[in-house]
Design goal:
By secondary structure, the chain is an alpha/beta fold. The chain is 32% helix and 14% strand. The protein is built from 16 helices and 13 strands. It has a nine-stranded mixed β-sheet with strand order 1-11-10-7-6-4-5-3-2, sandwiched between helices. A two-stranded antiparallel ribbon has the order 8-9.
Length: 442
């Protein structure tokens, strides 16, 4: 644990906030395990496995051994693990990482839905492959979702794909040994943005439906109306919200971005503002926790920054548009959560935000501001800062480098409720990973 003085060195973290934010140090390079250069050829060819004491997860198809626990009816239509189709739109595909039989013998598995990042333009489900593989080796069933990228679709289309994918997972997790009532959503970068919006919209929808029906509305598995995706059964058990909250000072709000084209961004959203992204419907009561990794939560304050880094302002406005006009505020989780009615925020699961202090794609202030908004809305939230980490290091470079996989440990801690600390052998020599970090545009 770092001192309060050290934690206040992070921009945006005041001395009053320092005791409530966890700043994580990672081992220096000389403390990490290294791979001799003589092993590089075999590692690149894939002929050597560098996972310390771990079983290999199932990859392409279920083995005969894995089918023992499944009913006969399920075996007849058992799908493959890679690029499963969950919808009719382009890129409506997902990959599944299934734990070995020894984990499935213990009962239904906690289930994680990973929503990939990629600046809303180049996302691909394989970004979550390392996290999915590592979690599955520790008894967690993982589904990595794809969704339409721009220009195939705008943010609203991406939200539709994400919702459809989550609904598919809820209705099919049991086929793979998962527990749909023990669901966790993990979103990285753009995936953190989309996952946050989808979750808040579903909470707002269920709250409004219950209020309209006098509290008697219950969704049933296998249902669905007006062509919407089936929705999983209602879980009467309230999600665990025993996650420490944080206190944040309210930052100044930047309303200078796209003022002439986005009238919503300079005005406060109200509880009457309908959240975007509530279709297809699924039951948010099944979600036990949400993890945002290097997420983009306030698009208004990010627009100029992203434009300077290569995501053109006009293109960004087109991605984040409603009815043909940029709508950055309506599509900013940090602003939407402030406008949610109390009945909706009460349905939000605990939120864990993970962010690198050296993130140049989405500065850490974005996570600080979102944590403030969640805390102000009464949503249980915990913010964990990775000191010196960039936008992609927690999800890509660090798992390949070896040593402690901090992201995997933090997700696993949320899922299990127990502290985690696992160390991995490196997959590649450090100099290659350092070079990849250097040339990575994120």
């Amino acid at each position: 644990m770092t001192s309060p003085e050290e934690r206040t060195d992070v921009p945006g973290v005041s001395r009053e906030l320092a005791d409530n934010v966890e700043l994580v140090h990672f081992p220096e390079e000389e403390d990490r395990p290294h791979v001799p250069l003589t092993e590089l050829a075999t590692m690149l060819s894939g002929s050597r496995q560098h996972e310390e004491g771990l079983e290999e997860n199932l990859s392409a198809n279920f083995s005969q051994e894995s089918e023992v626990l499944l009913p006969d009816a399920a075996r007849a239509t058992l799908p493959e693990h890679q690029s499963l189709v969950f919808g009719s739109q382009p890129r409506n595909r997902l990959d599944v990482f299934v734990p070995r039989q020894r984990w499935r013998k213990r009962g239904p598995l906690p289930t994680v839905v990973f929503i990939t990042g990629g600046a809303w333009t180049i996302g691909y489900k394989a970004w979550g492959a390392l996290l999915g593989r590592r979690l599955s080796q520790r008894g967690v069933l993982v589904f990595c979702l794809d969704y339409r990228n721009f220009p195939q679709g705008k943010a609203t289309d991406m939200l539709e794909d994400v919702n459809r994918g989550i609904a598919w997972v809820i209705n099919n997790a049991e086929l793979y040994g998962g527990d749909p009532g023990c669901l966790y959503i993990v979103g990285q970068s753009a995936g953190g943005h989309l996952g946050s919006l989808a979750l808040m919209a579903q909470c707002a929808r269920t709250a409004a439906n219950e209020a309209a029906s006098g509290g008697g509305g219950v969704m049933k598995k296998g249902g669905g109306e007006d062509g919407k995706a089936p929705v999983a059964a209602q879980d009467s058990t309230a999600p665990d919200k025993n996650i420490a909250t944080i206190e944040l000072t309210d930052p100044a709000t930047d309303t200078s971005v796209l003022a002439e084209t986005d009238p919503l961004k300079s005005a406060s959203l109200t509880p009457s503002s309908d959240p975007v992204g509530e279709w297809p419907a699924w039951n948010p009561a099944l979600v036990r926790g949400f993890v945002g990794v290097s997420g983009a939560y306030d698009l208004v304050t990010l627009a100029d920054h992203l434009d300077a880094r290569g995501l053109n302002r006009e293109m960004f406005g087109a991605i984040m548009s409603l009815d043909g006009r940029p709508a950055l505020a309506r599509l900013s989780p940090a602003r939407v959560v402030r406008a949610l009615a109390p009945g909706a925020t009460a349905r939000m699961p605990p939120v864990l935000l993970l962010h690198g202090t050296a993130d140049k794609s989405v500065p850490v202030q974005n996570a600080l501001d979102y944590a403030l908004a969640l805390e102000a809305a009464g949503v249980p939230v915990r913010l964990k800062l990775y000191k010196g980490k960039t936008h992609t290091q927690p999800i890509v470079e660090d798992p390949m480098r070896g040593g402690r996989d901090g992201l995997m440990d933090d997700v696993l801690e949320l899922v299990t409720g127990k502290p985690q600390s696992h160390f991995q052998f490196p997959m590649l020599p450090s100099f290659l990973i350092d070079w990849a970090t250097y040339v990575c545009p994120f």
